[in-house]
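Input C-alpha cells:
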C-alpha cells in the first residue's frame, strides 16, 4: 500500500492510534489493587483531518484472586465489586473485550500500535498493563510506556487539570453526577483530547509542522 492510500491517521501521531481509556479501581496500586471497570473509546479522523470519537467499549471486571480492596476507593466510586448485577467478568475476558476492537481499529487506520490517552494517563496505563500481565496476554495493543495525558494537555490549552473544569472551559458539557463511571469519563476525555488536537489544527499548528517536513 502506498503512503498516499493509507489512512490519514497513520501519519498524525507517528504511526500510533490514540485510544482513550479510563479505569475504575479499588485503590491506587496497579499491582495489588483490583481493577473493577475499564472503558475505551477509539478515535478516527474525518475527511478534513479533524479527530473525532469513533466507538466505545466497556467491561465490568471481577477482582483478581488476592486483590486488595480499599474501602475508601470503593466508597469514592460507589462500586460494589461483588454485586451480581454488575455482570463482571475476569480480567482476561474484560481486556480481550477491549483489546480485540482496538487491534482491529489499529489495523483499519494503518497504524502500527495503539497509544493510551487518559486523564492522568500513567494511572490508567499502569492498571491496564498489570492486568494484561496477570492475564498472560501476549499481544497488548498499547505502547508499553508512552501515553498522551489530557491533564497535561488541558493545563497547557485551558489552564485546568481537573477533567470537569477543563471540559467546562473547553465548552464540553460535563455532568458531575455521572463522573467516576469509566465509560462517561472516557467519553468526556475523548471529547477533550479531540478538542485540543483540533484547535491546534485550526490555529495552524499542524500545517506549520507539515510545512517543515522534508518532501
Amino acid at each position: 500500500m502506498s503512503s498516499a492510500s493509507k489512512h490519514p491517521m497513520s501519519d498524525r501521531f507517528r504511526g500510533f492510534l490514540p485510544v482513550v481509556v479510563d479505569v475504575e479501581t479499588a485503590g491506587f496500586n496497579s499491582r495489588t489493587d483490583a481493577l473493577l471497570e475499564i472503558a475505551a473509546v477509539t478515535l478516527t479522523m474525518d475527511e478534513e483531518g479533524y479527530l473525532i470519537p469513533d466507538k466505545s467499549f466497556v467491561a465490568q471486571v471481577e477482582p483478581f484472586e488476592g486483590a486488595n480492596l480499599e474501602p475508601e476507593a470503593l466508597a469514592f466510586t460507589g462500586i460494589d465489586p461483588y454485586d451480581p448485577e454488575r455482570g463482571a467478568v475476569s480480567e482476561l475476558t474484560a481486556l480481550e473485550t477491549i483489546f480485540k476492537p482496538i487491534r482491529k481499529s489499529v489495523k483499519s487506520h494503518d497504524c502500527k500500535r495503539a497509544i493510551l490517552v487518559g486523564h492522568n494517563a500513567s494511572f490508567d496505563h499502569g492498571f491496564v498493563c498489570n492486568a494484561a500481565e496477570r492475564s498472560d496476554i501476549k499481544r497488548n495493543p498499547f505502547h508499553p510506556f508512552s501515553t498522551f495525558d489530557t491533564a497535561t494537555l488541558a493545563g497547557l490549552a485551558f489552564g485546568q487539570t481537573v477533567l470537569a473544569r477543563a471540559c467546562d472551559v473547553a465548552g464540553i458539557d460535563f455532568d458531575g453526577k455521572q463522573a467516576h463511571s469509566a465509560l462517561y469519563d472516557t467519553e468526556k476525555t475523548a471529547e477533550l483530547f479531540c478538542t485540543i488536537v483540533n484547535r491546534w489544527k485550526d490555529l495552524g499548528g499542524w500545517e506549520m509542522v507539515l510545512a517543515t517536513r522534508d518532501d
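The mean pLDDT is 95. The CA atoms of residues 96 and 137 lie 9 Å apart.
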